[in-house]
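Help: read this over?
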Amino acid sequence: MSEESKDRELIEKRNFVMELRDYQKEELIKSPDSIDIIASETNSEATILIRVIMDSQLKSGAVSVDQARQIKEDISGSGAEKGILFGERFTSEAKKALREEGIEFFSKKKSPLPWMTPTELHERIQSVTDHLCQIKCGRIPLSEEECGGFSREPVRCSFCDGTGNLPTHYRSQRCPICGGRGYRTRAYTCKVRLLSDNADFHLEKNWFFLLKKDLLMLLEILRDLRCQSNPS
């Protein structure tokens, strides 16, 4: 059984954290109740033990305090500098033990994104966008005209999906991006640049939730591209 079929949501969350922090996978280790990755940081020689708990020792499905303590021993045994633990949920004793040891942990409900200001989120979006441009096209365009995904012809508005309106609780609201036309002139056809373009507007409006969504979607594209080039 593949790791995706055992617990896709936790695996996805682990992958997002690795993409967000630009961790590089060095080694994959599977055991009956967990999946470990020994990862390295891009700008340092530090290594991280990243563990996903697939099977809890408890009937509740929560990560137990014993499993929390075990990762501390395994961090030392693997020679890693720190650890990150993913689980469906954690007992209060497990949380306490992990906090005391300074070990990060993520449940299914905890967001993989750290707290960032809208400006910090936007800066990260631009960084990921530039990286994707390098991967997809081999360069970072300095202007609209230099971008292969830019069109002078009308393009369906991705913000309202071509409808020209945005649904609200009471009535439809005219799309602020395309002005209700359902299309945009001189716009991007490339999904990466569309997301980056939308993020500019989301920052202007200080729409924090949508900026987070923009970043996660870009990270998903990055992850898919890496999987295609490295299927193993």
